[in-house]
Amino acid sequence: MLIVCGSATSWMTDKLINNHGGLYNRLTCELKLSPFTLGECEQYFQSENIRLSRYDIVQSYMITGGIPYYLSYYQSGLSLAQNIDLLFFEKNAPLHDEFKRLFSAIFNNSEMMISLIRAIGSKHYGCTRSELSDVAGIATGGTLTSALSALIASDFIIKYVPFGCSKREEHYKLTDSFCNFYLRFVENKDRLSNDFWLSNIES
């Protein structure tokens, strides 16, 4: 019996799950770990004596996506806004550079993946393959197909056909909460104040 566990989703997808060699059709079980649900986030905060309203928990979910590792940085006695400043905006904040570290840990071709995520995240409704090819500078072909498949398998993006469009107009949309938040509020904003979120949360 061989058990493979890790965050290198693209490697496991290519080398094991979709293997066309000796491992073809030998996979007996696949367990995919998902982020916490809203209810599980609430249970986690209660277990850590972190008092947040359900409204705050929803906002927290829209920022961290229910990832337990990110939630573990929350501190009891601080408001949601104070915790977000602590995580992202204070000097040496633990998640300020998490975006690049995350993709470097998961993908061998992290720079290409990041350029795709930035391109897809730049439009609320997502991008077509041809738009991605133009914006990210990646030729439409096997490399782009493999990269998009890996991002879908890792739950960063989804593929869908907008209402009223043909199947040829498939769009790719960024659905990862952490990436959405990071690209909109954190990236390229090194000069923000330590209490940026607390000061701007109502804006």
Main features:
11 helices, mainly alpha, 203 residues, single chain, globular, two-stranded antiparallel ribbon
Write up what this structure looks like.
Helices cover 49% and strands 4% of the residues. It has helices spanning 9-17, 38-47, 54-64, 68-71, 80-89, 98-106, 110-121, 129-136, 142-153, 177-186, 196-200, and strands at residues 157-160, 171-174. It is globular and about 55 Å long. The model has no long low-confidence stretch (mean pLDDT 88).
Which structural class do the helices and strands define?
Answer: mainly alpha
Give the helix level as a range of percent.
Answer: 40-55%
Please tally the β strands and state the result.
2
Shape: globular
Q: DSSP helix count?
A: 11
Q: Which regions have little confidence, pLDDT < 50, spanning 5+ residues?
A: none
Please tell me how large the radius of gyration is.
19 Å
**Tell me about the biggest sheet?**
2 strands, antiparallel
pLDDT averaged over residues: 88
Strand content: under 5%
Within the largest sheet, what's the order of strands?
A: 1-2
Order of helices and strands: HHHHHHHHHEEHH
CA(first)-CA(last) distance: 55 Å
Task: Please specify the SSE layout and strand pairing.
Elements lengths: L8 H9 L20 H10 L6 H11 L3 H4 L8 H10 L8 H9 L3 H12 L7 H8 L5 H12 L3 E4 L10 E4 L2 H10 L9 H5 L3
Antiparallel strand pairs: 1-2
